[in-house]
Amino acid sequence: MRKKQSSNYINEQFLFETCERNSAISIVSGRWKSQIIYYISQGHNRFHLLKQQLPAISETVLARQLKELEAHAILVKREIADTVPTGVKYLLTNKGWDLVPILDSLCNWGKVYADGKEIFVPADPKLVQ
What we know:
Radius of gyration: 19 Å
Helix content: 40-55%
Distance between the termini: 37 Å
Low-confidence stretches: none
């Protein structure tokens, strides 16, 4: 948690108030959140199933990322009836499902432009906007 008087906190608040895009990026930023959302959308909705899909993530980090996504109402945690010990599953909310195609688009954009891949730059500066 940042101090409310720190320049980082003040700058962050300014950016969030200036454009909702910054708030949205902040919610899904992090190394694992987009992958967690993707795997839950594919039916890997229990902790151990997510851990199987993401073997490099520690259990502590996975638990923290799930809590953060839950705090932002991207997903909800539900108990599974008639399990001993009580099991839980994670379900995407409408807000979470609305993110899936956006994250898919970002993934496709990354396939084309990430890693310093060459991009077309028009010779006519009027075409660059």
